[in-house]
Amino acid sequence: MSESILPRRHLSRRRFIAAAGATAGALLLPGAHAVPARALVFAHRGASALRPEHTLAAYAKAIADGADFIEPDLVCTKDGILVARHEADLTETTDVARRSEFASRRTRRTLDGERHDGWFVDDFTLAELKTLRAIERLPQSRPGSARYDGMFQLVTFEEVIDFVAAQSAVTGRLIGLVPELKSSTYFAARKLALEDRFIATLAAHEYTRRAPVEIQSFEVANLRYLREKLGKRANLRLMQLVGVGATRPSDVAAAGGKLTYADMATPAGLRDVAAYADIFSPPTRALIPLRPDGRLDAPTALAQDVRAAGLRLETWTFRPENRFLAADFRDGAGEHARNEAGSVAEIKRYLALGLDGFFTDDPALGRQAVDA
Fold first, then answer.
1. CA distance 25 to 38
2. What CA–CA distances, in Å, run from 195 to 42, 146, 179, 365?
3. Could you tell me if residue 130 is inside a domain?
4. Residue 125 belongs to a domain
């Protein structure tokens, strides 16, 4: 994600350097609370830099590497089952394009305002989906992960919960879940609304009645609905994800509304978010943007404003390849090369802002940065 929410203003460079030299446990941001001593490490789609995303292998690797939470993005099958996929379009993350028996199901749909040509999860029953196998989304950058193409099944949300509960029992750690409801407006239009299915699944499992669960969405109406239905619970938080600049949430756009993600990132917008959510989750570059030369600029005021609104600050997403890093942290090994030291250094720069949590494709590097 190379763009960011338009910054309201910047902190002075001197103040940022002073903050960067402080530990996360010591840093205080104006107008709010003490920053937590240790930020939470969220495994983005599992350890997706190392295994095909949203597979039990990716989740297992993430947990072994020290993730505090694992992320299942949730979409819905034709027969109403929640499964873990990044989006409704199956084309880039499964072998469906190679499966002649499903060739006739290729079609075009609009997802979250973007036109897609491919195969869609809501055209498949769970039984059919289980015949597919996961593949690596970014094989050029992640050839190590691509070696596992074709090895792993797609999994349901219930299977993810059971797996995490089992891993918790084995490791002795209470591992959190940070599910994202994907494209709620799209699935509602397809008569496959996600929210009540999701609530029923949480209620059906002992683990999700007590383990930490942070529920994310780029939309607004579904989070408001979940807050109304779930209320305030000790183990549950709601996370408002935000995209870039003048982009509107899909539900807002579908209803003809004018609210943009940039509006939501203003002090007034953040106060509105705090009425229904617990967490504000912007892209990393909304917190520290890039200069024209690709190096990090001074931080925006967004971290301060989020805390002033009484919200937690959890950002997305850190990735370990040079192509995704700010120029400050790249090495000379090529854009697709893995750069562990650079990724850890970049995460640490952002941790100095006092993050409550962050998403990373490589939880081992996130763990290393936090533990440092």
1. 7
2. 22, 33, 12, 33
3. no
4. no
% of the chain beyond a pLDDT of 90: 87
Chain segment 9-40, per-residue pLDDT in tens = 444 443 433 333 333 333 332 223 344 569 99
Beta strands 279-281 and 236-241, pairing class: parallel
CB-based contacts of 234: which residues, under 8 Å, 6+ apart?
none
pLDDT of residue 19: 38
Q: CB within 8 A of 307, min separation 6: which ones?
A: 29, 31, 32, 33, 313, 354
C-beta separation of 297 from 286 below 8 A: no
Q: Which domain holds residue 223?
A: 13-88+153-371
The CATH number of the domain holding residue 229 is 3.20.20.190
Question: Under a CB-based contact definition with an 8 Å cutoff, are residues 65 and 364 in contact?
Answer: yes
d(CA 106, CA 126): 17
177, pLDDT greater than 60: yes
Write down the residue that tokens 């193409």 correspond to.
149
